[in-house]
Amino acid sequence: MHRRDVLKLGATLTSAGMLGLPWPRHGFADSRSLRERADAKGLVFGCAVKSPQLGTDMPYTDLIATQANMLVHEYELKRKNVEPSPGQYVFAGADKAMNFAADNGQAVRGHTLCWFQANPDWLEDALMVPVAQREQLLISYIDRVIDRYGSRMQSWDVVNEVIEPQQADWNGMRTDNPWWRALGERHIDIAFHAAKEKAGEAKLYLNDYSVENDVRWNEDRRNTTLRLLERLKKRDVPIEGYGIQGHLKPYRDRFEPEVFAKFLRELEGFGLQVMVTEFDVADVDGPADPAERDADIAAVTKSFLDTALDSPACAGVLCWGITDEYSWLSDLEKYKRADGTKTRGLPYDDQYRPKPMWDAIAAALDAAPARVPT
Ligand code: G3I
């Protein structure tokens, strides 16, 4: 997405008088937090948390408590962390975030029960067994984790990132995946049915990325997703939600509201709850001036969240972190900035100060249609 496209989004905002430049922090009539703004509309607003920093980094802890009404574990609830050895479960990290959420009256979503990544090193070999035992390796893990937290989760990412049209499968599925190798596409059915047995009221989600932008490879992913949802529906797989991760890259992939809105309407057609589950904005390839990047990020944030929250199926938004200090974007070669500065893709900077992105999220929450309490 060229900077002129991003500015076009910003111009729309400026002309609407919603969020002029420089961003009027005091532009809001009140000082409510993002959590309070979301609560007022019956929406989710939350973020991913790293439990080691909870209670040790106090400015971070305060932001998590005051700005989020829902949390998700950034990594502690993944099988690599939870079951480091076969049958040996380690829940300390996950428990810490669960207990923090309980102490602060926050909901939690479970991320994730079945993924091609973040599996313990022993799993691939363990899957070299007859099919029935492979199924049990998936089912028993899901049973164990949901047994521990089931009634406390608003939703589960039962299966994460299963499509990859650039791989060989005729259906655009991710075949470079231990669960695919072990059980084929049926691993999705098995995971959802196992979760449904135990998860009570929690919504069962399929979660994936790069379905947001007006670029060909995202369109391929959207179409692959919709075809997969059709197959799962025909097989009576109990899928109840779809998580749009929302890792935007506005300087690489153009965001076009109407393209995204069309996909949301198609998801509504499946009767699914939708959530933006891992929202952040990579500013790699953006201008050197942080203020310019902040303005661009705020513009695409407002446009993206306005579009998402306009969908009656969308329950809300979680950011993939709350402060640039701990963003995964600064750790990854393909997203870290060449000038060595931190990425600026979350609502608070690395000094825990709110940025124009915070304003854009607040404005989108304030502008969103209120949800009728269910
Ligand atoms: O904190 C430990 C540290 O004590 C230890 O010394 C170090 C070396 O093992 O590991 C550190 O934990 C790492 C953790 O990130 C720190 O945040 C884990 O190894 C590392 O695997 C973990 O990576 C996470 C990654 O998923 C894999 O689980 C990232 O934080 C997390 O942002 C990323 O999130 C994924 C979503 O689950 C799915 N969507 C994409 C998203 C970004 O890749």
Give a description of the structure.
The chain is of the alpha/beta class and 374 residues long. The protein has one domain: Alpha-Beta Barrel (TIM Barrel). Helix content is 41%, strand content 14%. The chain is built from 13 helices and 9 strands. The chain has an 8-stranded parallel β-barrel with strand order 1-2-3-4-5-6-8-9, surrounded by 6 helices. Helix 10 links the parallel strand 5 (203-208) and strand 6 (241-244). Helix 2 packs parallel to helix 13 (356-367), helix 11 runs parallel beside helix 12 (290-310) and helix 12 (290-310) runs parallel beside helix 13. The two termini are 38 Å apart. Residues 9-24 have low confidence and may be disordered. Ligand G3I binds next to loops.
Rg of Cα set: 20 Å
CATH class bucket? Alpha Beta
Can you give the helix content as a percent range?
40-55%
Major sheet attributes: 8 strands, parallel, barrel
Output mean pLDDT: 92
Order of helices and strands: HHEHEHHEHHEHHEHEEHEHEH
Structural class: alpha/beta
Number of helices: 13
- Work out the number of β strands: 9
Distance between the termini: 38 Å
| Low-confidence regions | 9-24
Second-tier CATH architecture: Alpha-Beta Barrel
